[in-house]
Amino acid sequence: MVLEGLKTRAVHIDNFSQHELHPNEHDPRAIDWIFVLDTLNFCFWTDGDDTKWKVSGYTGYFALCAAIKRAVHESRLMTDPKFYSTITIEELSYILRGDDESAKIPLLAERLQCLHEVGKVLVEEYEGTFVNCIKACDNSAEKLLKLVVTKFECFRDVADYRGHKVSIYKRAQILVGDIWACYRGNGLGLFHDIEIITMFADYRIPQVLVHFGAMRYSNPLLDTLQSGTHLTPGSLAELEIRGCSIEVIERVRDEVKSLIRQYPNLALRESDCNAILIDHYLWDYRRRHAGELESIPFHKVKSIYY
Predict the structure, then answer these.
(1) Which of 34, 88, 160, 298 would you call most buried, defined as having the most Cβ atoms within 10 angstroms of its Cβ?
(2) How many angstroms separate the first and last alpha carbons of the chain?
């Protein structure tokens, strides 16, 4: 399916910028816009019968995109760290208001804290723009990733797995990936080592991988997930689900590249396929087939990391 997606351009770098809710590469605010999005890009699920948070009819991540785009168009300075480093919870709540007043975005206080933290760093160390973080990294995705997780604590997605430090860095990696995709690998999005970025280990891609049989839960774990039990952040089960998701996509990417080498008549390049694009494709697949995948549980963790 991924190979077919490459041929039809369903798997393609252009797909990020083609979505109406994403910033355009020609917008001078694009980098700081993406940075705000990925600072707030975590935990959109609700429990049980709670009213789902929607903005302009969108749910989840795209509801966030819609809220930030609305704020930008209302001239609320959501791309300016001088503004959001001191934003109040009332202001943020208004900016992230949903279509239904009773439905609130989860973890609002944690989102406020993240904005204050990253905004303060940008103002004090990078002249008020994430563009300067990118320029300091010599077109290296790895250097930018390290800068983000070093300077911005809320992006530091690390845990202990049986005595080993595990760094998953979902939001930090998606930040690099989004910049690369927005600029189509050129200009501020030019990274000579973009292949070091893995898939973005969240709670939705595992649903798709289980659906395809690329990953399987043990019966006890499946029972736990089906019951709606919240997993503890940093627990073995959580880390294994996220870690196995990364491994699956690494294997899929390697297999697709192997097929491209074997069949030169496909007129594809190995660089046309990476973990970022596969992640985008599978994430879109989950949204398109939400009803079909509803029976597959996702792991519920209250976390700022995904």
Answers:
(1) 34
(2) 26
CA separation (Å) from 271 to 24, 266, 279?
A: 23, 14, 15
Which pLDDT belongs to residue 49? 63
Using CA atoms, how far apart are residues 17 and 80, in angstroms rounded to an integer?
A: 21
What pLDDT is attached to residue 46?
Answer: 86
State residue 166 phi and psi, 5-degree precision. Answer: -115, 125
Catalytic residue from among 178, 202, 272, 279: 202
Is position 202 annotated as part of the catalytic site? yes
Please state at what angle helix 60-73 crosses helix 30-39, rounded to 10 degrees: 140
pLDDT at 140: 98
Closest CA to 104 of 154, 47, 171: 47
Q: Taking the complete model, does pTM exceed 0.85, yes or no?
A: yes
List beta partners, residue 160. Answer: 165
